[in-house]
Each structure stands twice: as C-alpha cells, then as structure tokens.
Write a structure and sequence with these properties.
Layout lengths: L2 H15 L7 H18 L2 H14 L12
Helix pairs in contact: 2-3
C-alpha cells in the first residue's frame, strides 16, 4: 500500500465519522416536500406516494385541539 492510498483511506474513514446535524421538523418537512415535488415532476408515482406518507407522518399533531386558546 502506498503512502497516498493510506492517506486516502484515512481521509475517507474520518469523513464517515462525521454525523449529519439533526434536522428540525420544518427542515425535514421542507426536504420531503422538495423530494415529493421532484418525484411528481418526473412521474414517479410510487415514490411520490411514499413521500406523501412520510410527509403525513412528519406533520405535527395537535393531540388536544379543544384545549387551544387561539
């Protein structure tokens, strides 16, 4: 193994250790909506349906709507 390939392997290994930042709910929903729009644009109906389910799951749920004072 050459020194260059060792350095390259170490760089790849270090890059894999970095955890992605946790997304907030609004960021997650925006990402899912963009993906769903792209799936719709190319006619990927099954993928769009899957993304719609994920969007529905990610939406906030008001567990006690009568308690709201808006």
């Amino acid at each position: 193994m050459t020194a260059l390939s060792v350095r390259f392997a170490r760089a790849l290994s270090q890059g894999r250790r970095i955890k992605p930042a946790a997304q907030t709910r609004p960021q997650l929903l925006a990402s899912l909506l963009r993906k769903r729009a792209a799936a719709h644009a190319v006619g990927a109906d099954e993928l769009e349906a899957l993304l719609r389910d994920q969007i529905r799951w990610a939406l906030p749920v008001d567990k006690n709507p009568e308690a709201r004072t808006d």
